[in-house]
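Action item from last week, closing it out:
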Amino acid sequence: MIEFHLDERSGLSPYLQLVRQVRQAMRLGLLREGDQLPTVKDVVARLAINPNTVLKAYRELEHEGLVAARPGVGTFVSATLTDGSLAAHGPLRQELRRWLAKARRAGLDEESIEALFLTTFRTSAGEEIA
């Protein structure tokens, strides 16, 4: 089961962070069709957020056709976002882990690593479009 976390520095509202985390877990194959999402009560207790925030996130995912609510039972994944090439992700993940270790050895903290990655990612994406 997915465990949500919130990042106050992300600039995203809490409900969008929850939505994004579910989508990412689905893309990586961590959440599959039929898997149950944590109950609203569990998410509220773990993250200390308003129940309406969780409900809003779950409603958006339901509207997108990714999850389905079963009254009295819970919310379940009803679709998948994987492209079937998860096997290809293994080598990329290992390479990324090596890069992260190298960045830490170079003295970068988590925030600096994230900033470096995001700016490089955005610049690279812009270059590919042009």
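Closing note: The chain has a mean pLDDT of 89.
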